[in-house]
Amino acid sequence: MAKLFDTIRRLVAEEKYVVGEHAVQRLEEPRILEWQVVLGLEDGELLLDMRIPGKRVPRTRLVRTRNFVVAVEVEAVIPEDDTSEPCYEAETVQLLRDIEEHAEQGDVEWLQQHGRVYQALEA
User: Fold this and answer.
1) Residue 48 scores a pLDDT above 70
2) What does the alpha-carbon distance between residue 78 and residue 45 come to, in Å, rounded to a whole number?
3) pTM exceeds 0.70, yes or no
C-alpha cells in the first residue's frame, strides 16, 4: 500500500491527476476543498491500519489476460456511510493488479497460490 501512496503522491506533485465529481461531493460533507487534499498529500502520512468501516462481503473477481483467466476470492466493503455499492480497499486493488502482472508474465505457480487459473488453448 505504501507503494501506491507514493505513486499517488508523485503523480499529484507532477499535476497528473483529476478530481472526480463523486470525490468533490464526499469532501463537501466535512467542508474540505479539493486543493486542501492536494496540498495535504505533500506532508501527509499513510495510516496502514486504516480500514473502511462497513459490512464485508466476499466477491469472486476474474482477472483476464490474453492467455489466462484467474478467479480470485476477494473481500469487498459496503461502507457504513454510503451503502449504495460495495467498494474495494487499496490492498485488494493492488492484489488484482499483481495478479494481472503475474498472469502477463506467465507465472502460473504464483497465480495458483492466489486463485483458480484457467489457461487459453490455441484453436
Assistant:
1) no
2) 25
3) no
Amino acid at 16: K
Cell of 48: 496502514
CA atoms of 107 and 101, how far apart (whole Å): 9
Tell me the sheet residues that pair with 58: 75
Q: Model confidence over 62-107: pLDDT tens digits? A: 999 999 999 999 999 998 888 888 888 878 888 999 999 999 999 9
The DSSP-derived string for 62-108 is: EEE-SSEEEEEEEEEEEETT-TTS-B--HHHHHHHHHHHHHHHHT-H
For CA atoms 29, 2, 16, 77, the dihedral sign is: negative
